[in-house]
Write a structure and sequence with these properties.
It is a single chain. The protein is 19% helix and 30% strand. The protein is an alpha+beta fold. It has two domains: 69 residues, 434 Repressor (Amino-terminal Domain), CATH 1.10.260; 127 residues, Ribbon (Umud Fragment, subunit A). Strands 1, 2, 3, 4, 5, 6, 7, 8, 9 and 10 form a ten-stranded mixed beta sheet that branches. The longest helix is centred in the N-terminal third of the chain and has 14 residues.
Length: 220
């Protein structure tokens, strides 16, 4: 091996605080490869082994063989590929409900259209997705008055989910919506929880119109 190549190899070992055995192993070569190479008085390693050494020593074969310092450090392999620009759907979803809420933060859910908002990607393929505004402070600090919530009308609620529960109050009463934390729902009753003050709300299953899962928030 030429003295110049030996000098460059030793320099990179020092720069990276590597032993000859460690560098050989990192290059996928035999443990004694570099030590045996250093003991040779003639001939350089094969091209494929030189490439492996250069990669292990984070440099280039050109620099090891005498290249300028601009060739010293190899650029890292890209960890991502830049592809086509991502296009977001321009779908919009309706915001339903009334801005004025009740003592528990409920609001009348009568299909009253307020406005349209851009649909988030998670709901772009969901039919009948919609949004509502939070009314009152009953769910602070989780949700704040005026905050926009995106709702998935077809996802099965699980305990701990935040939901929009639509409740029919009386045979001819209004249909009210409650933004709360889901606890359980069985053949007899629906139980949901609010945070401020901490309270469990219970409704007969016969009163429950729907329970839809909140899947995200936006600016109010």
């Amino acid at each position: 091996m030429t003295d110049f190549l030996k000098k460059r190899l030793q320099q990179r070992l020092t720069d990276l605080d590597l032993t000859p055995e460690g560098a050989s192993k990192k290059a996928g070569l035999s443990r004694d490869f570099l030590r045996q190479l250093f003991s040779r008085t003639a001939g350089n390693p094969r091209a494929d082994n030189l490439v492996r050494l250069a990669e292990a020593l984070e440099t280039t074969p050109a620099w090891l063989l005498g290249g300028d310092d601009k060739d010293k450090v190899a650029l890292p392999a890209p960890n991502a590929r830049i592809g086509e620009a991502v296009e977001f759907p321009d779908k919009k979803i309706p915001v339903y409900g009334q801005a004025v809420g009740g003592v528990n933060g409920e609001f009348e859910m009568n299909g009253h259209f307020i406005q349209e908002v851009i649909c988030p990607p998670a709901l772009s393929q969901v039919s009948d997705a919609y949004a509502v505004f939070v009314s009152g402070d009953s769910m602070e600090p989780r949700y704040f008055d005026g905050e926009l919530l995106y709702v998935h009308p077809h996802r099965r609620p699980r305990r701990g989910d935040f939901v929009v529960a639509q409740i029919q109050l009386g045979e001819n009463g209004p249909r009210m919506a409650f933004i709360k934390r889901f606890e359980r729902w069985n053949s007899e009753e629906l139980i949901i929880e609010q945070y401020n003050p901490v309270t469990e709300l219970k409704f007969s299953t016969s009163q429950v119109v729907s329970v839809h899962v909140v899947v995200g928030t936006g600016e109010g």
